[in-house]
Specification:
about 70 residues, mainly alpha, two-stranded antiparallel sheet, 2 helices
Length: about 70
């Protein structure tokens, strides 16, 4: 799970990278934080997509996506 503190740190490192540059340790930290952020985003998106149901207009019945 990504926390507000992690997002703040990612932004802090991004601003520093654009202004004065990052040390090797900071680059490594930034890469790890980005990896965690992307993983959390994908997990959240997958959960949302898995909960989508299609409604057939004529009868109003719901059906899950068949993946086709």
């Amino acid at each position: 799970m990504i926390t507000e503190q992690m997002i703040a740190r990612i932004n802090e490192l991004a601003h520093k990278a654009n202004s004065v540059g990052l040390t090797d340790d900071e680059i490594e930290e930034r890469n790890e934080l980005r990896k965690k952020y992307i993983e959390a985003f994908r997990t959240s998106l997958r959960a949302q997509l898995d909960n989508i149901e299609f409604v057939d207009e004529p009868d109003g019945k719901k059906r899950p996506d068949s993946g086709e």
